[in-house]
Amino acid sequence: MSRAKEIAKKNALRLKRKRRVRGSISGTESKPRVTITKSNKYVSAQAIDDVAGNTLAAANSKTLGLNVSKESASKTAAKLAEELKAKNIDTVVFDRNGYLYHGVVAAFADALRENGIKL
């Protein structure tokens, strides 16, 4: 199997997981959905109110001057938690966006919990 086919299959499986997870979770203004997105360079996250279709808070490792690693994910989560607390939000629904729950994604979720946000 060529490298391009392997990447296409990997992305297709992630999108399949993403659709399955998103079918069962949704965010509201009082309990937004926090979704994480990662690339080979950066990690970003948003708190989304799906009822109104608004982004309530966002954090990106690029604007913080960080790369993609567990430590960067923790710092990005701390920034997002700070923004959520400023809006009096302490409980969220976590959307891993089809990524497997380990490494950067798990570190991000753990850092949110450590900063007082309930998942």
UniProtKB/TrEMBL annotation:
GO cellular component: cytosolic large ribosomal subunit
Keywords: Ribonucleoprotein, Ribosomal protein, RNA-binding, rRNA-binding
Name of this protein: Large ribosomal subunit protein uL18
MF terms in GO: 5S rRNA binding; structural constituent of ribosome
Superkingdom of origin: Bacteria
Originating organism: Malaciobacter halophilus
HAMAP family per record: Ribosomal_uL18_B
Pfam families: Ribosomal_L18p
Matches recorded under CDD domains: Ribosomal_L18_L5e
PANTHER family: 39S RIBOSOMAL PROTEIN L18, MITOCHONDRIAL, LARGE RIBOSOMAL SUBUNIT PROTEIN UL18M
Keyword RNA-binding: yes
GO biological process assignments: translation
Primary role: This is one of the proteins that bind and probably mediate the attachment of the 5S RNA into the large ribosomal subunit, where it forms part of the central protuberance.
Subunit structure: Part of the 50S ribosomal subunit; part of the 5S rRNA/L5/L18/L25 subcomplex. Contacts the 5S and 23S rRNAs.
Family annotation (Gene3D superfamilies): 3.30.420.100
The family this protein is said to belong to: Belongs to the universal ribosomal protein uL18 family.
